[in-house]
Amino acid sequence: MLKLKYFTFNPFMENTYVLFDETKEAIIFDPGCYEKNEREKLHDFILKEGLIVKYLINTHCHIDHVLGNAFVKRQYNVPLLIHQNEVMVLKSVSAYASNYGFPGYEETEADQFIDESDEIKFGNTTLKIKFVPGHAPGHLVFYHEGSKLCIAGDTLFQGSIGRTDLPGGDHQTLLSAIKSEMFTLPNDMVIYPGHGPETTVEYEKENNPFVGKRAKF
């Protein structure tokens, strides 16, 4: 049985996710832990549950989602997986981290590239991948059909969508990708976003002001 735990870290209120199953193998998505106490919260949970971390995955590589990359790689000796289109996005973080109040940011590099043709396997679990660019050029989302859960990063939020005014963003690309990729998931799929509370595909199809039936923008 697949289980999910999330933490909200850093001033951007970013959601960091840990997925694990009955084998105790786990994946950490988008570690936003920058401060010592944030890293301790994540590590204490891993220890308490007796988890074996297999992978570190970034849905995309904006600063708020990668602040804990170096810590996780070092602490658990795991590879970092990203889409190849996110290489420059990740590399650029070092240039502006101090301006955002993170002078202690440690640069990391990807160990493996993944895309929508791949699957992520850990324990008894297989995650499928969708390519949903627009917020970031190599943004990926990860879903598990049996558990009806989707790690969506900054694509689709409860009542909103990811911002598209950052380098590499494109509004129409994101709208199209949400409709063609996210909205083809089952209606009862639970969307776990990079910020804010979870939602469902069905709710956003009906109510999202950007991409739903009542779209205003």
TrEMBL record:
SMART domains: Lactamase_B
Residue ranges occupied by any Metallo-beta-lactamase domain in the UniProt entry: 13-195
UniProt cofactor(s): Zn(2+)
Pfam families linked to this entry: Lactamase_B
Keyword terms, alphabetized: Hydrolase, Metal-binding, Zinc
Identification of the protein by name: MBL fold metallo-hydrolase
